[in-house]
Amino acid sequence: MKDFFKYVLVVIVCLSCMLIFNFALEPSIVSIQKGESNGIYDTYILKYSNGKSDTITIKNGENGEDLSLQELYEATKIAKGYGDEYTMLDFIDEYLSLSIEEKDESKAYLGALSTVAVYSTFPTYVDLTAKKAYGVSIGSGVIYQTAGDSDNFYIITNYHVLYNKNSLRSDKMSEKYTCFLFGSNVEVNATQITGGYSVSYGSDAIDCAYVGGSMENDIAVLKVKDSSRITNSNAKPVKVYDGDPVMGQSIVAIGNSEGKGISITKGVVSVDSEYQSMLACDDETQITFRAMRIDAAVNSGNSGGGVFDTNGKLVGIVNSKIIKDGVEGMAFALPATLSTRIIDNIIENSSETNKSAIKPTLGITAKIASSKAEYDSESKGVKILEEVVVDTISDNSICEDLKSGDKIVSVIVSGKEYIIDRFYKLKDLTWIMKKGSVVIFNVIRANNPVTISVVMANNAYSTVK
User: Fold this and answer.
1) pLDDT higher than threshold 60 for residue 4
2) Rounded to two decimals, what is the model's pTM?
């Protein structure tokens, strides 16, 4: 019977103190319902007699057929000669009890199906016969779809993966963008010629077009030219983590490390949010960006690759690390929530004449009045909570009805309320504030709740290079 289970990996994704308590009371399982399936993993929802429920994820058998949890349980009873006294809970306890780390990591690796290797080919030399030589930048990316658009696939990556200061183009961007799916044959043929290389790619290469990007935020987006190359593969558009990463949260980084193929490293979120300053890829512009710090090992080629949580959802985009004697495990990733807001903004505003993001200036400054740390039981990490108040309002601010000292409780954008319990959240929200829309600020003023409506005037917007 051991061989029967050898081909089935079972992962319990919701195991809490309450579940352990339920075992002690010996509730019975009243139903098993099949949930989502991605072709590799199927989820099952177990409902107990005490009203509680659990979600179990099970990998399909080696022959590709689905094996239900109930079938595994019944097969075990027969093989071992057990009677009805051998309950489903006994089966789960004996065969499906894995440590939290084991459960989490096995699903986190699904992020590989959303990962691509990115190759940017830029012109470096043109001889008298107009023959060109090229250089190649190597990085990573993640497959992405915007909300409500199932026809187009995009690749999120770093701006510095697509830009090269040695490019002969006036904008210093690459001339050709290519990506390879995880598991495909990465075939890059480079022959050295005068001034660089003659470069060609194999049949598994997927051609992409540049949509736009922001050097200031080190984020850029490509569009897959032939969407069937994705739909006819096992690749999956990434699912974005909709929470806030917290200190101590387990993650994996997946990318084309050193250009040697997609690899996976694991670690934790060391710092959930901080600001980093560095020279941009033009080696001239000083930029400051919000990032989270991770200790997962990343190297050249990981840039643009994803950082995934324990459910395989995108938490961040790797973009830099500290390289210095005596410093280890200090890499940085652009938070996924912020990055995808910028990407959506770029896609929406992209045109033949504009390849940048467009966002408003609110005309206010804010500050942190108080802050505290607390344990987050859901993510098993430590999160920071901050009280954010208005500091100053400029003369021409579209937020002229706000007052210094107002505590910003929440902001409603496009009908959705966002709680402002971190300083950065207000600034991040500006990326989704659309021209002409009404944004509602819920504040506390002199201990009283006040609602302020702000019309997003066109003249408040500017491009973000």
Assistant:
1) no
2) 0.77
- Give, in order, the Cα–Cα distances in Å from 134 to each of 129, 158, 169, 185, 188: 15, 20, 12, 22, 13
Cα separation, 308 vs 182, in Å, equals 15
Strand partners, 333: 292, 318
What is the residue-wise DSSP string for 138-169? EEEEEEE--TT--S--EEEE-HHHHB-TT-SS
pLDDT tens digits along 132-188: 999 999 999 999 999 999 999 999 999 999 999 999 999 999 999 999 999 999 999
Token pair belonging to 109: 């690796």
Closest CA to 54 of 83, 81, 88: 88
Distance from C-alpha of 208 to C-alpha of 228, rounded to nearest angstrom? 13
**Do 153 and 224 contact (CB within 8 A), yes or no?**
yes
DSSP 247: B
State the virtual CA torsion across 11, 14, 19, 20 in degrees, nearest 10: 60
Cα dist. 75→4, 56, 70, 95, 358 in Å? 9, 18, 9, 13, 59
pLDDT (mean) for 77-87: 75
Q: How many CB atoms lie within 10 A of CB 118?
A: 31
Query: Does 439 score more than 70 pLDDT?
Result: yes
Q: Please report, to the nearest 10 degrees, the dihedral formed by the alpha carbons of residues 74, 76, 78, 84 taken in order.
A: -60
Sheet strands (E) in 70-205:
115-126, 132-144, 154-157, 176-181, 188-193, 196-201
pLDDT band, residue 54 (cuts 50/70/90): low
| Buried/exposed code over 157-194 (b: 16+ C-beta within 10 A; e: otherwise) | bbbbbbbbeebbeeebbbebbbbbbbebebebeeeeee
The residue whose two tokens read 């990962």 is 115
Which 8-state DSSP code applies to residue 18? H
Q: What number is the average pLDDT over the span 81-99?
A: 65
Find all residues with CB under 8 Å of 166, minimum gap 6, and list them. Answer: 122, 124, 135
* Statement: residue 227 has pLDDT above 90: yes
Rg over alpha carbons for the chain, rounded to the nearest Å, is 25
Q: At what angle do helices 69-80 and 88-95 cross, to 10 degrees?
A: 90
